Amino acid sequence: MGGDNQMHLDASYAELKNLNEPGSYFNHTLKTLYSFLLTGNFYLPPTATLSTGDFDIEKSTITLFPNPSADRFTVNAPQQSTISVISPSGIVIHQQKTTAENTEINLANQSSGVYLIKISNNDFKSITKKVILK
Questions:
Q1: Which of 80, 120, 122 is nearest to 101 (CA)?
Q2: Of 36, 37, 51, 86, which shows the fewest CB atoms inside 10 Å?
């Protein structure tokens, strides 16, 4: 175990040791998350894109239009951000790096429903918006 905040790691380990309810889904989930925290084994998806450009996504204005859409919509987001489209079942169906402020996404081959659009930067900060596909 190692990290910058040893007090937090110690508290996490103590709580992990004390979670001992075999039938509790919530406690087993906490044990798993604490184990990841304590060992540093968080999963980094192979499709993760790291960038050298910086932008403060929390101060950015992110817009989607038209919304609802029949098949195509435009994402207005800072350059060098990563746009991920997540289906209603939670699967990333499209991901791309922006090269301009306006990026068109085509979902013509997808079924109608609510899709999540996640716009993230290289600091792993993100903003999530919803788009309705008619």
A1: 80
A2: 36
- Contact assessment for residue 42 and residue 34, using Cβ atoms and an 8 Å cutoff: no
Say what the alpha-carbon torsion angle 125, 91, 110, 75 is, to the nearest 10 degrees: 0
Q: Which helix (H) or strand (E) holds 83?
A: strand 82-86
Which secondary-structure segment (H or E) carries 38?
A: helix 25-39
CB 48 within 8 A of CB 126: no
pTM of the model: 0.56
Over the chain (134 residues), what is each successive 10-residue block's mean pLDDT? 66 73 74 71 62 54 87 89 91 92 92 91 82 90
93-112: burial string, b at 16+ Cβ within 10 Å, e else: eebeebeeeebebebeeeee
Instruction: Centre a 10 Å sphere on the Cβ of residue 7 and count the other Cβ atoms it contains.
Output: 8
Closest by CA position to 115, among listed 91, 88, 94: 88
